[in-house]
């Protein structure tokens, strides 16, 4: 496997090089500190994996990865960053892994072994379809992979969106509008400026003040409001 490292901090770059060289057979063909230089290199050279920081000059790591993900031959992207708030964007572009600094030796070694195993297997063209029903959320400083179908509702609290399943509460550092854009619209509805609801989890539709509705959900004791501005679209969706 051929790889490049994109990291503008010398010590972080040297540490990563040490682990790659000592715990894998991955070849490091070049190193970069600037996102624009990476684009120029990738246009002329093929690599199998990019170890990528987010906070880099000229073109940040997320934008760089989004550009690379449009290439016909896509390398694996491994984010190694101190910024946890970009995990959802990393999922959307199908990043291979998302590792938070400061990372442990065991975490890096495990990622390298998984990367080599995945590369050595025959390419699975159905990989994308298998993971599109997953989403990365945060709980107790950890990224938790959650089935989208298990989400019941979401609430906006300032710039953070809180996501609720039957038994758990998670969060994501996106506005509710930004998070809504990541969800499948055939399953989720923005029923209120502060709420998203999973349509399949609605158990009862209760008439409320000013001709609005409250929605009782399956399995949990919680009601989600439908605002007047979203009432017409909700009625169309629910055939009311």
CATH architecture annotation name of the largest domain: 3-Layer(aba) Sandwich
Dominant shape: elongated
Derived from helix and strand composition plus strand pairing, the structural class reads alpha/beta
Radius of gyration: 21 Å
CATH class category label of the largest domain: Alpha Beta
Count of extended strands:
15
Q: State the helicity in percent bands.
A: 25-40%
- SSE pattern, N- to C-terminal: EHEHEHEHEHHEEEEEHEEEEEH
How many structural domains can be distinguished in the coordinates?
Answer: 2
End-to-end span in angstroms?
Answer: 57 Å
**What do the pLDDT scores average to?**
87
Uncertain stretches of 5 or more adjacent residues: 124-131
Helical region count?
Answer: 8
β-sheet strand percentage: 25-35%
How are the strands of the largest sheet arranged? Answer: 2-1-3-4-5
> Which fold does the CATH topology of the largest domain refer to?
Rossmann fold
GO molecular function, one term: DNA binding
InterPro entries: LytR-like, LytTR_DNA-bd_dom, Sig_transdc_resp-reg_receiver
Pfam families: LytTR, Response_reg
Protein name: Response regulator transcription factor
Walkthrough of the structure:
This protein is of the alpha/beta class. The protein has two domains: 2-123, Rossmann fold; 149-238, LytTr DNA-binding domain (OB fold (Dihydrolipoamide Acetyltransferase, E2P)). 30% of the residues lie in helices and 31% in strands. It has helices spanning 10-23, 35-44, 61-68, 87-92, 105-120, 127-131, 176-180, 231-238, and strands at 2-6, 27-32, 49-52, 76-81, 97-100, 134-139, 142-147, 153-157, 160-164, 169-172, 188-192, 195-198, 202-207, 213-217, 223-226. Helix 1 (10-23) packs across helix 5 and helix 2 packs parallel to helix 3 (61-68). The longest helix is centred in the middle third of the chain and has 16 residues, at 105-120. It is elongated and about 65 Å long. The protein starts with a strand and ends with a helix.
């Amino acid at each position: 496997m051929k790889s490049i490292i994109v990291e503008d901090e010398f010590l972080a770059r040297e540490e990563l090089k040490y682990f790659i060289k000592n715990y894998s057979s991955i070849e490091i063909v070049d190193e970069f500190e600037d996102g624009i230089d990476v684009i120029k290199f990738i246009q002329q050279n093929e690599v199998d994996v990019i170890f990528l920081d987010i906070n880099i000059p000229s073109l940040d790591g997320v934008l760089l990865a989004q550009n690379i993900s449009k290439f016909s031959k896509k390398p694996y992207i491994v984010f190694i960053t101190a910024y946890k708030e970009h995990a959802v964007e990393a999922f959307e572009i199908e990043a291979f892994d998302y590792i938070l600094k400061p990372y442990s030796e065991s975490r890096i070694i495990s990622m390298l072994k998984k990367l080599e195993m995945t590369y050595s297997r025959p390419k699975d063209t159905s990989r994308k379809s298998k993971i599109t029903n997953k989403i990365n959320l945060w709980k107790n400083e950890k990224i938790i992979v959650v089935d989208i179908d298990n989400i019941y509702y979401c609430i906006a609290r300032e710039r953070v969106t809180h996501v609720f399943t039957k038994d758990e509460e998670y969060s994501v550092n996106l506005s509710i509008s930004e998070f809504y854009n990541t969800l499948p619209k055939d399953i989720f509805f923005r029923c209120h400026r502060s709420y998203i609801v999973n349509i399949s989890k609605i158990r009862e539709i209760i008439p409320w003040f000013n001709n609005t509705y409250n929605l009782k959900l399956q399995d949990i004791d919680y009601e989600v409001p439908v605002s007047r501005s979203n009432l017409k679209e909700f009625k169309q969706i629910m055939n009311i």
